[in-house]
Amino acid sequence: MKRRAFYFDMTSCIGCKTCQIACKDKNDLDIGTLFRKVVSFETGVFPNAKIYHYSTSCNHCENPKCVEGCPTRAMHISEDLSVQHDASKCVGCKYCIWNCPYGVPQFSKKTGLVSKCNMCQDLLDIGQNPACVDACIMRCLTIVDAEDTNRGENLTKDLPILPNSQITHPSIYIKPKPQAFDSSFSKKEY
């Protein structure tokens, strides 16, 4: 089976957070819990100030540190090579949270368990897109074959805002804006 990856076109993203809201609604998440989050970053100074937005979720890594850190195997690599979480095996120890360099797994105080993006596996199983992909009004998010790197674009997995991709080999392709490579950035919460 082929590994799937998220493709994110940063050059088209307007930071509307529709993907974030669709994910939260689809998964009926607690207040403060997000499986997909849109974060904005500013670079430069007036008159050359710039902004870009990054839509982040689980990267369904090839070498997932969350899986390495899970003592019960609740976090695991599934048959379709995505990183999944089995709530029936989770004891809420948070080791997966501490091990994930992207800070993806989320702890729920209500359930006492961890959860995360499952790439909307239920929708993929019936041939549909994840909720975040279909909700994106700018069509910035898509699902692609993780081995398909010949898209004719300058894609990256490494940006100053992200951990080194060689650690986990994330299943993400990013079409970046030039300012996303500026290491002098400030994170903005809107």
UniProtKB/TrEMBL annotation:
Identify a single GO molecular function assigned to this protein: metal ion binding
Against Gene3D superfamilies, the record matches this protein to: 3.30.70.20
- The 4Fe-4S ferredoxin-type domain, residue ranges: 4-34, 49-80, 81-110
Cross-referenced CDD domains: DMSOR_beta_like
UniProt KW keywords: 4Fe-4S, Electron transport, Iron, Iron-sulfur, Metal-binding, Repeat, Transport
**Matching InterPro entries, A to Z?**
4Fe4S_Fe-S-bd, 4Fe4S_Fe_S_CS, ET_IronSulfur_Cluster-Binding
Domain of life here?
A: Bacteria
| Name the UniProt record assigns to this protein | Anaerobic DMSO reductase DmsABC, chain B, iron-sulfur subunit
Organism per entry: Campylobacter curvus (strain 525.92)
